[in-house]
Design a protein that fits this description.
324 residues, alpha/beta, Serine Threonine Protein Phosphatase 5, Tetratricopeptide repeat, Immunoglobulin-like, 4-stranded mixed sheet, 12 helices, 8 strands, 16% strand, globular
Length: 324
């Protein structure tokens, strides 16, 4: 005779089956961006207290101002995505401006050299910069349309013109990851880090790739590095840190460490209480730990925040089971 399951045990079995098809992957950057850089003089010495003006060029006019520190460095967080004109100025050294594009969860970088009479870029330099910009934007558009082969073609063209384009390598890694070519994705993310060792999103990209391959120790190390870099950069409440912590939670969950994962998702919600996926994953942790009342609460909060989200169907089914 087959053993009879209690109602609670049967419920947990049903939930476990539903949960098996709801495994998440570490997320990509999904918050506001930031802009940082450095100002030096003609002899490459840092310029203290240079005024940095950051002007939004898309839609409603918005201006942000910040000053450099003694190392000549500046940072502005919480910027909406879009195009910006960034100007650095300092008495007796003059001013210099560049265009920049801030992307969701990313850190754009603009560096300046202020010196009286400093020559501007040549026409050839300007044309090359415009060509790179065009290729990059076309690559982003292709990627957003899920045309990853088209995106790869554009970003690879861009790095021919600018071999030091670490953002290009990041996007190449992202495209390969979407195609599930994890070896090439890993290679591209590592190249981005070779060019920019403090590139938080490239470490998050590696964490995602390693997690997909069930290389959980490597994924944990990459995600931890991303979190450390975010903290060092002073972006504890910024998108890079939130994504890194969320990734750590998913990695622990996939490795069967529900208690550790729970701690990471709780930390994400302290930084961003409206992070839908963290609510969903925290609910899954509570299911695993047998706290069904808390699980229901977090599933319902996920559905409130993302009624049409990628886990909405699973969350609705689980809530219905939990409330029986």
């Amino acid at each position: 005779m087959l053993p009879v399951l209690s109602g609670r045990r049967a419920l947990l079995v049903v939930i476990a089956v539903l949960a098996a098809v709801a495994m998440a992957s570490p997320g990509w950057a999904q918050s506001t961006g930031m802009l940082k850089g450095k100002v030096v003089d003609g002899e490459n010495n840092p310029v203290d207290a240079a005024k940095i003006t950051i002007s939004f060029l898309d839609g409603i006019s918005r201006n942000y101002e910040v000053k450099t520190n003694k190392k000549g460095e500046f940072i502005q967080v919480g910027l909406p995505p879009g195009r910006y004109k960034v100007t650095a100025e300092k008495d007796k050294l003059g001013a210099q401006s560049f265009d920049a594009r801030v992307r969701l969860g990313d850190a754009a970088e603009v560096n300046f050299t202020l010196a009286p009479g400093l020559a501007g870029p040549t026409k050839e330099d300007a044309a090359r910069a415009e060509a790179i910009k065009k290729l990059f934007e076309e690559g982003v558009a292709a990627s957003r349309s899920n045309d990853y082969d088209g995106a790869l073609a554009k970003f690879n063209e861009a790095i021919v013109l600018l071999p030091s384009c670490y953002d290009c390598y990041y996007n190449i890694g992202f495209a390969h990851a979407q195609k599930k070519d994890y070896a090439k994705a890993e290679e591209a993310f590592k190249k981005a880090l070779e060019l920019k060792p403090d590139y938080v999103e490239a470490y998050n990209g590696l964490a995602t790739v390693y997690n997909a391959q069930k290389r959980f120790d490597d994924a944990q190390a990459a995600s931890q590095k991303a979190a450390e870099l975010s903290a060092t950069a002073g972006t504890t409440s910024g998108g890079g840190s939130v994504d890194a912590i969320y990734n750590q939670g998913v990695i622990d969950w996939n490795a069967g460490k529900a208690e550790e994962a729970k701690g990471h998702f709780e930390e994400v919600l302290k930084l961003n209480p409206n992070h839908p996926e963290a609510h969903y994953q925290l609910a899954m942790c509570y299911v695993n730990l047998g706290n069904l009342a808390e699980a229901t609460k977090y599933f319902e909060k996920y559905l409130e925040l993302a009624p049409d989200g990628q886990y909405a169907a699973q969350a609705k089914a689980l809530v219905a089971q939990l409330k029986k």
